[in-house]
Amino acid sequence: MIRRLLRRVAVLIPFACAGCSSDPGNDPGTVLTTPADLSNCTSANTVPITLAVGGSQVFDASQINCLALPGGTAAQEYVVEAYSGYGVSTENGSSAAYALQSVKDSTAPVAGATAESVRQLAAAWHLPGATATTVRAAGFDHHLRTLERGLIQNPLVRASHLMATPTAVPVLGDRDSFYVCSDANCDGFKRIGATVKYVGAPGIIYLDDQVDPKAEQLVAADFEQLGSIFDGYLYPTDTTAFGRESDINGDGHIAILMTPSVNALTPDCTDGRVIGYTFANDLLPYAPGSNAREMFYTYVPSVATAKCNVVTRADAIEGLQPTLIHELQHMISFNQHVLLLPGNDQDTWMNEGLSHFAEELGYRTVPTSQCTTFTGGDCFSVFAGGDIENAYSYLSDTESEYLIAPEAGDADLAQRGASWLFIRWVADHFASDTLLGTQFTRAMEQSTVLGAARVAQFTGVDFPTLVGEWHLATWTDDLPGFPQTGLLNYRTWDFRDLYAANYPDNFSRIYPLIPDLIGTGTYNHSGVLNAGSGRTVRFELPAGSPGYTIRMAGDVQGDALLPAILPYLAVVRVQ
To answer: What pLDDT does 304 receive?
Structure first.
């Protein structure tokens, strides 16, 4: 698991506070105002938008790419989302150029396509095939997932979990040796010795025999605290949400190896550091460097260096709690998809999103008394703070990020923020147990159908439509004056009040998503659609306005969109 530099910040407040502003934004955004020629949007091919406040529509822009926002005697406001509904996970990600433009009408257009045809087009979709391309330099977590996909292509290695040697449960003080990744590429291994410091059920904690004597030293109480919270809360939370892990060596336990080898994976912590991981290599005994057991690898306390902050006992204990619940989901996912079914490993965007959802579950299930030993904080800060920061990063620049992140992409925390937000929103509206979302999370992990296809299968709604409604919800959720019914909201979070309550101490904006704001004149924006992501634009129509014509095209000249990226438009009336 990758984290930004560890630091102590003011505690994030998860709920609304008295007197906090709920202003929908503090910056109008930036747009290009070069005149646009929308002459090819005729009355015959332009769909008029007829919505009550709170109403929304989704359009397949490869079929319908010209929309008309009506003027009228009363002021109106619409939010338009141009996005990609593409749900296929590929090595390098999928993207395509696009342009979104508008002009103020002189007269309102006559009726074009009917509402019935719009519904049919929105429902007519499929997940097209995609060809994987060369793998880019990857972040550590993504790189491990890539290595795992390669390992399971060998039938002998894949089946070797069935031939693991049973082992006995160790006792305190026992010593053992382990293979650990020799560098961040994990294309080689080194052998280290370690001693048992805690034995619980199911956790066993080992400490590397070679730790830095200059660093703060872990004591027996630290191992007891970490082991008891893993056994008592993190493990039951994850296994309830996602299913069971494997037990290839028959000891009924999971080893947690605390070692400086993890610290060494990121000697430069400028862009974050690896603080823990699990690698399915250990579940495949015939794979080189396999330890033939279920296990995690975590960092240990260390002194400050020129490019890395100090790691204290507090960091090593509280920082590892969200890491363990996150990484356990990965371990469970591999078992459910590869060892039990067997099938292919979960799509990386969904795999990471579910692991970050597991962190949120830690906030919702671990008692506050377990999260205050060192920092005086609470479980929200310990478990959910990272998710909130990742979501903020994504919402600050949705067009530049992916929802369907590249399989071999960098460990982009903003992309993880996108997948967590999407999974949270789907669980809010389609799981019978909304708060914990267990029905949804188990459905995602216990199926040979993966990623976007499984989401569509579970919800009964085509994936592009879901993505469009989710994008609209990121703006309309708890928007003052907007009806909080239907799908265009989150049931379990009030993100507007959360970010406002932590502005400006932790966040530079009252709310991270700032749509382009169009009140007069034309709008002319060109960019790139990344799979699952898009751009949000607000249209304010004063009383007496003749309305706007909007076009989504492949470029500002109006060339056709690339259909393979599944270009879509979503519209909601907010006033």
So the answer is: 97
| 76 close to 575: Cβ distance less than 8 angstroms | yes
Is the pTM here over 0.85, yes or no?
Answer: yes
Instruction: Give 553's strand partners.
Output: 99
Give how far Cα 466 sits from Cα of 52, 356, 555, Å: 20, 20, 25
Q: What is the pLDDT at residue 23?
A: 43
Q: How many CB atoms lie within 10 A of CB 251?
A: 17
Is the confidence at residue 124, as pLDDT, over 80?
no
Q: How far apart are CA 536 and CA 516, in angstroms?
A: 7
* Three-state secondary structure of 259-307: CHHHHCCCCCCCCCEECEECCHHHHCCCCCCCCCCCEEEECCCECCCCC
DSSP one-letter code for 61: T
pLDDT per residue over 442-482, tens digit each? Answer: 999 999 999 999 999 999 999 999 999 999 999 999 999 99
Distance of CA 134 to the CA centre of its chain: 23
Question: Which residue has better confidence, 555 or 130?
Answer: 555
What does the alpha-carbon distance between residue 490 and residue 501 come to, in Å, rounded to a whole number? Answer: 18
Structure tokens at 147: 């290595």
DSSP, residue by residue, 94-158: -EEEEEEEEEE-SSPPPP-S-HHHHHHHHH----------PPPP--HHHHHHHHHHHHTTSHHHH
Residue type, 363: Y
* 475: three-class secondary structure by DSSP: helix
Whether 195 has a pLDDT exceeding 90, the answer reads yes
Q: What is the mean pLDDT of residues 94-123?
A: 57
Which among 53, 99, 111 is positioned nearest to 550, based on CA atoms?
99
- pLDDT tens-digit profile of 50-65? 999 999 999 999 999 9
Task: Indicate the residue type of 14.
Answer: P
State pLDDT tens for residues 293-303: 999 999 999 99
The whole-number average pLDDT for the span 349-360 is 97
* Residues pairing with 526 in the sheet: 99
The CA distance from 405 to 410, in Å, is 9
Bin 24: left if φ > 0, else alpha if -120 < ψ < 50, else beta. alpha
Rounded Cα distance, 256 and 203, in Å: 7
CA 303, 304, 305, 309 dihedral sign is: positive
Coil, helix or strand at residue 76: strand
- Indicate the pairing of strand 547-553 with strand 95-104: antiparallel
* Structure token digits, residue 302: 């260390």
d(CA 455, CA 435): 18
- Report, as an integer, the average pLDDT of 414-436: 96
Q: Inter-axis angle of helices 385-396 and 413-430, to 10 degrees?
A: 100
The encoded tokens of residue 516 equal 């382009």
Give alpha helix (H) positions in 289-435: 313-318, 320-334, 348-365, 379, 385-396, 413-430
In the chain, the percentage of residues whose pLDDT exceeds 90 is 74
In the block, tokens 């040979």 appear at 448
pLDDT of residue 146: 86
Gap between the Cα atoms of 511 and 25, Å rounded = 6
Of 210, 169, 215, 211, the C-alpha closest to 193 is 210
